[in-house]
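Bit of a strange request maybe. I'm writing a small parser for structure token strings and I need a real example to test against, not something I typed by hand. Could someone generate the tokens for this chain?
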Amino acid sequence: MNKIAIAIHGGAGTILKTDLTPELEQTYTSGLQAALDSGYHALQKGQSAIEAVLAAVISLEDNPLFNAGKGSVFTKQGKHEMDAAIMDGSNLQAGAVAAIQQIKNPIQLALDVMRHTEHVMLSGQGALDFAATRGYTLEPDTYFFSQQRYNQWQQVQHTDTTALDHNIPVKDKKFGTVGAVAVDSQGNVAAATSTGGMTNKQFGRIGDSPIIGCGTYANNHTCAISCTGHGELFIRAVTAYDVSCLMEYKGLSLQEAMHIVVQDKLVKIGGEGGMIGVDSKGNTALLFNSEGMYRGVRDNTGINEVNIYK
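Reply from user aminoacidic:
Good idea to test on real output. This should exercise your parser:
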């Protein structure tokens, strides 16, 4: 049997131990472990890598601590616009949704786009029209309300500032995105990413998370990648696919390829954040160039780790 493994992230940025109380740190850690366990248990039961990353991301979307699903940040208009993508490395099938509202689990809708349409990405009202054909129930805005997120939005609502962080002022940057990558017992890899985007974002802004090859990518021949960081820079660098290219065309290992992209290519253009990756052999890597990244990894060799800081 192939080695099974899963890695998750819950955002990266200026995450310092001095900024979190022991109680809040434990709450984050517990949330990450719960998501990690959800995905790993799917793999243990012989389910596919797609099912594993779906389970892990749904767990994170349902946790208001993380900027995705229930914990999504406020837009300039006081709404919640969410993006998500999922990709199957066994056949390069992918699905994504962008700028959607009132969907409890955007990652599930992204999967339905992959499985039940001929398209890769649906956005805005069109994505919601599709959701209606699949029997989705729209959640009221109150479902997505968080006092913490509301307070953050209030600090920048009357400006043109777009906050990349969970905590304002910007000195406490935390790039809020969640994601998972996994390899199953058949050696198939998959990646999934979901986000509420930037606080106070305008004009239907879309980041890297739902863009295949930028924030999310999976290919059995190379790797599965999910990114978190300053989306505009990750789009320009085509980060997720760049890791795959370095592995495919230069023969680099997962760790080597991710190191070049995260610690060199992104740094040179001012791209702060990180990514998680897995290959078909079960190797995992979790790299970031920021002060911290909410992250976890578990496999069937006994590794089961959750970390926040460097």
